[in-house]
Amino acid sequence: MSKHLSISPLFYFAKCIVKEAKISIKAAQINIRYDRRYSFYCPVCKKAMGVNRRLLQTARDFPLGEAKVVMISYEAIQCHCSSCGAYYAFTPEGIDMNAKATNRLMHYVCKLSRFMSVDKVKEFVPISTSTARRWDKQILTTSLGEPNLDNIRILLIDEKSIGKHHHYITLVINGDIGEVLHIAEGKKKESLSKFFDKLSLQQIATIEAVGIDRSGIYQAVVKERCPQATIVYDKFHLIANYNLGIDTVRRSEWRKANEDNKNGIKGQRYNLFKNPENLKRKQKVSLKALLKVNENINKAYIIKDALKVLWIYKYPKSAGKYLDKWVSWARETRLAILQTFADSLNKARDGILNFCRYAITTAKLESFNNTIDRIVRRACGYRDLDYLFLKIRQETI
After folding, report:
1. pLDDT at 380 (0 to 100)
2. How, if at all, do strands 154-163 and 209-212 pair?
3. How far is residue 269's CA from residue 301's CA, in Å, rounded to a whole number?
4. Considering just the CA atoms, what is the radius of gyration of the chain in Å?
């Protein structure tokens, strides 16, 4: 061990000086104390305070070279104000007494936790996984703050699976700026109601439109808590629902086909779902061959592309006329699953045609899916939804 006061600039703390530095290959201890020229003042009456007692404390700090364990030794000073009788404890600025660590080390751990699994942080900083997670959550809480709930014009609402056994969360974002506003466990009425519980009547009044799928639960909550908002059904969910219909037709045709034709139908599911421009050459050839020989699958596939045209229209009246045409085409296929889907679209026409007024989709929410999946996978799942909320907001603001 030896003294190295020349490293004082590396361990700057306001109103403090480095008294001694003891450094070895694997560890370092930096002893600091308050500058004697500094006086303590009462935070209540602003008058000078007298020192009541001094308590020696240590805090973990940023690694120094090969020395992964760096401890800061400092005095926590309790002062007493003779004027107002108040007691107050002073610790050097930049040290979190409760965490027993410097703020800069906690911020470093927070940055590491953003790009790697929390259990990998210990390879860079010798702390436990639980400590890394606790520090990460603390820094995110103080640095990110609460989401801005004022002047919200557009809301986007969707559910997201974050684990096995149908473990879902309800996700709400600001449709204009993409800020995550709310996360709640489940996809029930209470999951969304908790978001509106946070809003004042003035904040709710600014909401003009809400983009959702056709889920009756979310729709019921929006109509009850935000009745003035225009509901817009998300086109991507509708197309995804139609794709399920196509797959039902495909499976039905596979069951009816003879052994020679079964191979041509098998494995075509995602080729039927994809946009033609996204198909590879081999996929185009095999899909073309299937559509040529199977009339029912061909019918379902043709009106799928026709359905996407619905969202090109800018005027509700024109879009409504086209929707009527598409519904008639679906009925003419005489395929029960497509006829049922067409009837459901007809019933939901107001929410579909509202897209002409507010061209919003949950695309921003869907773009978060990979981000959320990556966060959950990196953490091997989340039990603390508040922490998950912070991790998602970290990636989106």
Report:
1. 60
2. parallel
3. 11
4. 31
